[in-house]
Write a structure and sequence with these properties.
The protein is α+β, with helices and mostly antiparallel strands.
């Protein structure tokens, strides 16, 4: 499961007092540095504006104990930055790779944290997830008939007002004892929970591991991902206040939108899944 997150927000070498410390993680959109003794700062790279959505989402999640606390919004040499609570722990993906026997329990925890997020009203300034998906589908490279099918499918799906993470997978969940903290919120949106739930199912089932992942690790991911996906989906449905609605249709929308990310290793499988879905509706 690919994770464009900036790595575990932990570092034991941070100096005393607030101020930019050692770099402790990096991703495509941002870098994470130590910030004083009990915080980190996530500095966005030039050209990326996900800090606005991330700050809004984290502010909405304050007090829910399912994400790092937002401490401050700063400017560091012209780069926007979010000062965040330091979370001591490991990301769930790495934990699964080291302790695969915990897959069932971690799958349940993954669902419980996601349900807690979906219980939070989304800030009004976040984009509508339907509009986000539509833009991605329109930008994706796929046969025209599949694109039309995906857009018609999306047109029949509802809007909502719940907080959606937009990229929910084990690599974006930190595990610290009994606490799970969900990180990396630049793709936060508002919508119905099923839209975000379907995206998570897609990533758990079919997302390609990060480039450079060792073959042994890829084998472990392939062997354990179906178990994790089933444990997550079962626990999510069981814990949801109502049975999830139209998950298959939301899955179609997310599969089509995923093609816009241009991950070549995934494209044949995603096109095949779309074609099968279209054939079932003919």
């Amino acid at each position: 499961m690919p994770a464009d997150h900036t790595g575990p927000m932990t570092d034991s070498t941070a100096g005393e007092g607030a101020g930019l410390g050692r770099r402790i993680g990096a991703g495509r959109e941002a870098e994470v540095y130590a910030w004083g003794g009990d915080a980190v700062v996530k500095l966005y790279r030039p050209g990326y504006a996900g800090h606005r959505a991330e700050a809004a989402a984290l502010a909405a999640l304050g007090g829910h104990h399912v994400a790092p606390s937002l401490v401050d919004v700063v400017d560091q040499d012209g780069r926007p930055g979010l000062v965040l609570e330091r979370i001591t722990g490991a990301d769930m993906l790495g934990l699964l790779q080291r302790r695969p026997w915990r897959v069932q329990g971690l799958g349940r925890g993954l669902a419980e944290a996601h349900l807690a997020i979906h219980g939070v009203p989304a800030p009004a300034e976040l984009p509508d997830v339907r509009q986000v998906l539509a833009a991605q589908i329109e930008a994706a490279a796929m046969p025209r008939e599949l694109q039309g099918f995906a857009l018609r499918n999306l047109d029949g799906l509802p809007s909502g007002d719940r907080l959606c993470h937009g990229d929910y997978h084990p690599g974006n969940v930190m595990v610290a004892g009994d606490r799970l903290s969900v990180i990396d919120w630049p793709n936060a949106a508002r919508g119905v929970p099923e839209a975000d739930h379907a995206r998570a199912i897609l990533l758990l089932r079919w997302a390609d591991p990060l480039p450079g992942t060792p073959l042994v690790t890829r084998g472990l991911v392939a062997a354990g991902r179906s178990l994790l996906a089933r444990a997550y989906a079962r626990a999510y449905a069981h814990g949801s206040p109502r049975p999830p609605q139209q998950v298959e249709s939301w899955l179609v929308a997310n599969i089509a939108a995923r093609l816009a990310e241009g991950i070549k290793a995934e494209q044949p499988k995603l096109i095949e899944l779309l074609a099968r879905a279209r054939h079932r509706q003919l």
